[in-house]
Design goal:
The structure holds two protein chains of two kinds.
Chain A (H helix, E strand, L loop, with lengths): L1 H10 L4 H30 L4 H16 L2 H15 L8 H29 L4 H9 L4 H16 L1 H14 L12 H11 L4 H30 L4
Helix pairs in contact in A: 2-3, 2-5, 2-8, 3-5, 4-5, 5-7, 5-8, 6-7, 8-10, 9-10
Chain B lengths: L20 E12 L2 E12 L3 E5 L6 H8 L7 E6 L2 E2 L5 H8 L1 E4 L11 H13 L3 H14 L15 H13 L5 E5 L7 H16 L4 E4 L3 H7 L2 E6 L2 E6 L1 H6 L4 H11 L2
Parallel strand pairs in B: 3-8, 3-9, 6-7, 7-8
Antiparallel strand pairs in B: 1-2, 1-4, 4-5, 9-10
Helix pairs in contact in B: 3-4, 3-5, 4-5, 5-6
The chains are: A mainly alpha, B alpha/beta.
Amino acid sequence: MDYVSRFWDVITQYDVLGAFWLNITLTFWSGLLALVLGTIAVTMRISPIPSLRAASTVYVNVFRDIPLTVVMVAMASVVWMQLSVSFSQTMSWDFYILAIIGLGVYHSSFIAESIRSGVNTVPLGQSEAARAIGLTFMQSARIVILPQAFRGAVAPIGNTIIALIKNTTVASVTGVAGETSGLMAELIENSPQFILAIFLTFAIGYVVIVIPVGLLTTTLSRRLAVKR
Amino acid sequence: MSTAGPPNSASPQDAAGPPDVVAELRHVDKHFGALHVLKDINVTIRRGEVVVIIGPSGSGKSTLCRAINRLEPVDSGEILIEGRPLPQEGRELARLRADVGMVFQSFNLFAHKSILDNVTLGPRKARGAGKAEAEAEALRLLDRVGIKDQAAKLPAQLSGGQQQRAAIARALAMHPTLMLFDEPTSALDPEMINEVLDVMTSLAKEGMTMVVVTHEMGFARRAADRVLFMADGLILEEATPKDFFTNPQTDRAKDFLAKILQH
């Protein structure tokens, strides 16, 4: 118990909950961005216009194939430093926003592929029927195809979101301070005698966040499945 | 030839109305890879006419039906709906498709929407009808096909026959000038075929212009004004049902009828 209470004294000097909260907000905003971009990408991918399909294919393959660390370092060192793209007066806000963009763009490729797997669960006859009653491509995508595709893609989208939650720790390389992986490194450096407890704290923290998401995904994918 | 001629077409008061020819295919050709599925097809469908297309599987009859609203693009030739050539994929084609009802072999009701929403979707989104107006009309049509009480259910909760009747109501809700039926009873259990054919027969009696691809010879005899017999991508015979069934001209048609009428 002595070890635990001494560890408790150390860790309560840091804002561990705040760090987790920061990763949760990163997840939320970049997840939202990834869903929007992924939906746009998949709509282009199934569109009747060849150039849009090609553009979407290139986008998805490029961001799916580049390592996340490379994307996140580039957001700071290329986009911010070289291209001088700035969104605010403070560096920390810039890094926060750039991290969200990097995470969002990277994961949008996986979201797009997840939704596309959902599109493949929608029989061809559904879009034929939509076209036959006079819907335009955008109408049939929005009203008939994508709603069914999302419902068929809950599980893979959930897996992407779970990966995103954990990948937000890479935001530290974009310069986001105070998130979990940075805080963990700081804790280990300052209190190496507690290294095992520190690892366990963050590991358990993420498990606690991810478990409900996994359960929700499983329940929703069953409940939302389109009955045919 | 006593029963020849489309009985519903060209009544005198229609003379100044819309053109008498609803759909026309001129020299239409289509390949699936190396397979030549439509060979120089020429068909004219007049207002109020019921044209039934029969033939062995792989003869191109479904492809012909689907080509009329360009669900199946053709390689060459012309397809005209009410005198206008079919446009390329886009808004104008969508508008034109809204006027051509289609009923599929596998029903293709929107699986995530209620029966009522399936029927109101076209009028609301493609025609801009109001919700109340579209729903009243949808319930009237569902009542007409005998499934008004199923309006709130999802397609998967209905029997095949009920789903197909809902699909017919969905097509009727657009007030089509032409209805295409692509093997509408082929996916149904035998006891459900008649409920769908009854709806189709009553539509035919009311003067709906229909193109029906089917294996139901009873329906062809009863409801058709004209029978097209297709084989190997060609229209081999074009006759009144009476002439076709009692006096087929080609060996191919004789052979086909012998095989299916034995049972």
